[in-house]
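We modelled the chain as a single entity of 263 amino acids. Its sequence is:
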Amino acid sequence: MNQLIETHAHIYDEQFDEDRDLMLERAFDTGISQIWMPNCDHETIPKMLALEEQYPGKCLSMMGIHPCYIDENYQKELETMEQWLTKRHFFMIGEIGLDFYWDLTFVPQQEEAFLHQLALAKKYNLPICIHSRNSKDNTQNAIIRCCELIEQFGWEDLRGIFHCFSGNHEEARRVIGLNFLLGIGGVVTFKNGGLDKFLPEIDLNHIVLETDSPYLAPVPHRGKRNEVFYIDLVAHKLAEVKGVSVADVKRITTENALNLIKN
């Protein structure tokens, strides 16, 4: 299989405004066949859809409201999202979830919006891309809370990815038990990222690859702008951690991504 799927990249971000086409050319030249674009709020939709039109079949758009964009006006954002879902097809709901890192002011609204978007995923039979970031002191666990809300909603009707997974073995097992995949990105290359401690015990069938560009660049680019073609560094590190070939990592994670979005 001569292709690789990048399951999470904000390529519409302003950090790419000066060289976006060149950045994407580098990505496609390295064998990346699809780039999945998560939405953030109403302001990111036009640029995201423009990229999808410019690169048909290569850049795919999700529809969802990122938890960091949930505030007192979240219901209006949800209305905009629902209107778009009635206008055209989106292959995935995302990115949605809970973020306890920056501000806990709107956690109740985040949870309500999350449940509402789970219902939309069920209604349209779409997979979900989940954002789950713990508080800075790790006393508020977003991964566990997302799992609890999914269980409360009814996990049997849902499928998707816990994007940028950075939890522990127990949390990984819980996510997998809910029929969700682990989105593995640059964190796997970090010296103290922790993923190397349990990923050897996780079957590749439960993993997809991502970069979260322009954020979370892998080593040796950590701290700089992340790029889509750096996903190759993620694939190589994951192969090293698991003691398998890079070719197997790319083939199996690509198959996992394609199977996820089959209706």
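As a brief sanity check on the tokenised model: Residues 8 and 189 are 17 Å apart (CA to CA). The mean pLDDT is 96.
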